[in-house]
Every structure is written in C-alpha cells, then in structure tokens.
Amino acid sequence: MAGRQRLAIAAGLATATAAAAVAPIAGRRLVARTERRLCATPAPIARRPSPAAVDLHAGLDVVDLHADSLLWGRDLLVRGDRGQVDVPRLIEGRVALEGFAACVRVPRHLDPERNDDTSDDVLLVAIGGGWPVRTWRSALARAVYLARRAMAFADASAGRLTMIRTPGDLADHLDRRRAGVAVTAALLTIEGPAPLEGQVGNVDRLVDAGFRMLGLAHFVDNAFAGSAHGIRRGGLTSVGRELLVALEDRSVIVDVAHASTATIDDVLALARRPVVLSHGGLRSASPSTRTIPDEQARGIAATGGLIGVGFWPEVTGGHDVAAIARSIVRAIEVAGPDRVALGSDWDGGVEVPIDPTGLVHLTDALLAGGVDAATIRAVMGGNALRFLGAVLPSA
C-alpha cells in the first residue's frame, strides 16, 4: 500500500466491526465496499494502442513485483467487478508473474510523512472479512492465512495459477507459457516485518509458508528498521542486522520499499545478495516520501537488484500511463536497462491509470518515449524473470 491518507480503511468499517463478528455476510460486504472505494477499477483507455505496441506486447512475459490483492477477500480466480487484479485480468494482460504481498498491519489515519505504531486497520479487515480468530491479534497468523489463501487459489485454478517458490517452478511455468498455455503465476511477498513479531527466528516459519521476499519496513518504525513514514526514521537496529543476515542465509529477497533513507544506506553497506525496491520510484522523477535518491537506485543496481517502478502519481509525478513511462525511462537512465522492473502497487489503495488489461498501453507509451523493443521486453518482465531465476532458493 502506498502513502496516501485516503488509504485508511473507512470509518464505517470500524463502527461495524462488532456487528461483522456475528454477521459475516455484512462484514464482507463492508470490506468489499471499502475495496471498491480505495482500489477503484481503472476505466479502459479509449484510444487504441499502436499496432507496433500490440505486436510487441503479445510476445511479452510481464512481471509485476507488488499487488495487495490478497487483503480484500475476493475470489481471485474470478474476473472481478471491483479492485484491480485477478487471474483472468492477469492472463489477459500477459502477466506471467505477479508479486502478491501480505499486508498485515497498517496504522489508522495514515500519514505519508509520520506514523506511530499504536493502531491497526488490518484488524478491521480481518474481523469484517471473516478471517480466523487467531489472525485478529497475530501478524504472523495473518501472513500465514494469506499465504494459504493464495495457495488455495492455485490449487483450485486448474493450472491457471502457479505458486513460484524455486527456480525450477519458474522454469516449468515459463515452459507452459511458451507452449501457448494461458497461465499466470504468483510470488508471495511480505510488506514489512510485522509477521516476524519481533523474532528473527520466525523467518523460518514465513519461508515454510511460501514467502520469498520480505520488506524491512512498512508505514511505521519497527524493531528491525526505520520507515520512511515513521517517527525516528533511523537505520537498521542491531536485531535488524541479524535479520538481514537471516534473510540472506535463507535466500529471502530483501525489499527496501517504504524503508527510511538510513535503512536503505545500511542495507546497501551490508548486503551480500541483491536488494530490491519492489514498488516505488526515483526522487529525480517525482520528489516524495515514496521515492529514493538516484545514488540509492545506483546502489541497488550495484547489488544486482531491481527497481520496481510504481504506477501511482506519488511516484510517477502524473496521473496517466505516459507518467509511468517517464518514470521508467528515468529509472533506466539512472540504474541501467537491466535493473528496472514494474511495481504497480495494484489494490494498494492508490490511484492507478491501468489494471493488468491495460498494460499494452504502457508498452505503447514506452515505445512513444523512445525505448527500444529489447529494453521494453526487459523492463516489462525479462529483468525480473532473470533475477528470480538466479536468487530464489533451489529447494
């Protein structure tokens, strides 16, 4: 989820929490209305993409590193009339792999600049959405619950959705796509370390649950690291340094999205493996709390990592697909064409101009911006697929 004040869950959901606990249908309807308001389905772009873009896009294996779709309780195997991501729309948009994030804790009255850790809006979603009682007070239980939901979707998808845990999973999935089978895949990620519940040892439980990427911070400072939206905004703590080592030892991808400047600097100084910014942008393209300085983008690239460029105005500096393309071009200029990827933040309570079915318009905008076809293939998915094939654990 991105740092916009309107992201906070509707006040009506809070007042209806008690009723939802005994009236699950009413609670789910309330969560659905909240999602419909915060994660509006973008209107289709009226103009047709160029024939060159259509031809190029038809051969792409798109990868997007971050979506919050698991949070809202929709059946992701069905084409939805709300929200931004589901399996049918991913397949239509040529998305080979989507990063599905477990967002398990968000403060109320969200402030992009400064938040404390004294409130929890995801509790309202958990109660209203009918999550198991064990998730109401445990961030770890919430993450495991969301992972199991994702896996249940894959099991029920008749092969349309594959869970990616290893390079072998990824290779098999891509072979099916290249044989002409209409399929997509999911990579499980975690937005912030809340599911660790302060314990580095819980990394093993999250890996066993299927997660392969973990963010060091979300909207508040935590026991491990400072947040770009926190009070202190410090760097890695001593236990945060232990966490970094533990993640790398287990081949979990370290994500610095939402992390403070000091945290990112510390990670870049200590990392032994590639580092990712899953969803964000460059400050030279759009100055905001959710973008990073050019020198940090170069540092991430130097680790062999990726910059996942977001789709919302706070990181692109505009409201249309052309703004996303300009932000991508700037990232290419700074980090290099082989270190840039997509990090939409779909279903994260942000304004985006396209859902997966509109990705051909991004291909078109990149062509119009002078980006060559080979670089477009890389940025739209090739870079991320190569990266994941190299860094995911073998077993």
Gap from first CA to last CA: 30 Å
Task: Tell me the helix content.
Answer: 40-55%
The counted number of beta strands is 10
Biggest sheet layout: 10 strands, parallel
The CATH architecture can be given as: Alpha-Beta Barrel
CATH structural fold name = TIM Barrel
Average pLDDT score = 93
Proportion of residues in β-strands: 5-15%
CATH top level class name: Alpha Beta
Please give the radius of gyration in angstroms: 19 Å
Figure out the total of helices. Answer: 16
Which oligomeric form is depicted? Answer: single chain
**Low-pLDDT stretches:** 3-16
Class inferred from helices and paired strands: alpha/beta
Fold topology:
Layout: H1 11-15, H2 17-22, H3 24-38, H4 51-57, E1 62-67, H5 87-92, E2 95-102, H6 121-128, H7 139-155, E3 161-163, H8 167-178, E4 184-190, H9 203-209, E5 211-215, H10 238-249, E6 253-255, H11 261-270, E7 275-282, E8 291-292, H12 294-302, E9 306-309, H13 313-316, H14 321-335, E10 340-342, H15 359-368, H16 373-391
Helix pairs in contact: 4-15, 8-16, 14-15
Task: Give a brief outline of the structure.
The protein is α/β, with parallel strands linked by helices and 395 residues long. The protein has helices at residues 11-15, 17-22, 24-38, 51-57, 87-92, 121-128, 139-155, 167-178, 203-209, 238-249, 261-270, 294-302, 313-316, 321-335, 359-368, 373-391, and strands spanning 62-67, 95-102, 161-163, 184-190, 211-215, 253-255, 275-282, 291-292, 306-309, 340-342. α4 (51-57) packs across α15 and α8 (167-178) runs antiparallel to α16.
